[in-house]
Every structure is written in C-alpha cells, then in structure tokens.
Amino acid sequence: MSDREAQDFEPPSDEELAAEVERFRSLLELEKGKVLRNAQRTLTEDMTLDQDDLPDEMDLATADYNQSLAFRLRGRERLLLTKIESALERLESGEYFWCTICGSFIGVKRLEARPVTTLCIRCKEKQERQERAFAG
C-alpha cells in the first residue's frame, strides 16, 4: 500500500473531519434532491395502461414491460433514498466515517465513490467473498 493509499485509511484531524462532514452532507442532500425529483417525475407520469391507446398485443406487451420497469426503478429509488437518509443520520451522530462492522475509518475516497456505504473496503471485500462462496 502506498503512502497516499495509507493516508486514505487514517482519520483526518478534527478540523478536517468537520469540513468533510459539511462536504458529505451537501453531497448527500444534493443526491437526495435528485432522487426525490426523479421520483416526483415518475409519479406525475401516467402509470396506467389504457388498452384503447394500444392497438395490438405487442403494443400492450411493450407498455406493460415499460410500466414494470418504471415500478422497479421506483423501488430502487426508494431504497437509495432510505440509504441516503441513513447516511445523513450517521453524519449527525458522528458514525458516518466509521465502518459498522469493524469500526475502522472508511476512507474518504471510498465515501466519495459510494457516499451511502457503511463498510470500509476491507469489510466490503470480505462480505463480497462470502457472498460469492455461498452463491457458488
């Protein structure tokens, strides 16, 4: 591990951490706004299928598939919104930068890549290895 990589795993000073809290709060609030706007847009779109507007079975099947996809996307948005709200709560409680499994500092670069994560890279990799072992 290079010095630069090692620095990403060391907790910043209190002053640096306070600045990071504000930066990540802004980032999470921005992402939350995007999710809410997108959810509002899909809610305002007509989600009903009117068979009079669909001349044949292929059109109906395509429209049904598109509606199913829209509902799945809304489910994903709901899950992401829950994760964002949880991350904001962890920011407020002071737990955001710390792995929920081992208690280690979650690197800033990892949080930048995945702001809703709750695991450090080591615990996430271990979790993925276990999932692959059970799936295989």
Structure commentary:
This protein is an all-alpha fold. The chain has a domain of 94 residues: DksA, coiled-coil domain (Four Helix Bundle (Hemerythrin (Met), subunit A), Up-down Bundle), CATH 1.20.120. It is 71% helix and 0% strand. The protein contains 5 helices and no strands. Helix 2 runs antiparallel to helix 3. The longest helix has 37 residues. It is flat and about 65 Å long. The N terminus is likely disordered.
Identify the CATH class of the domain at 3-96: Mainly Alpha
Number of helices: 5
Q: Identify low-pLDDT runs.
A: 1-7
Query: Strand-and-helix sequence, N→C?
Result: HHHHH
Class computed from helices, strands and strand pairing: mainly alpha
How does the overall form come out from the CA principal axes? flat
| Alpha-carbon distance between the two ends | 30 Å
Helix content: over 70%
Q: CATH architecture of the domain at 3-96, please?
A: Up-down Bundle
Question: What's the name of the CATH homologous superfamily of the domain at 3-96?
Answer: DksA, coiled-coil domain
Classify the fold: give the CATH topology of the domain at 3-96. Four Helix Bundle (Hemerythrin (Met), subunit A)
Q: Sketch the major β-sheet.
A: none
What's the overall average pLDDT, rounded? 83
- Mind telling me the C-alpha Rg? 21 Å
The total count of strands amounts to: 0
Beta-strand proportion = under 5%
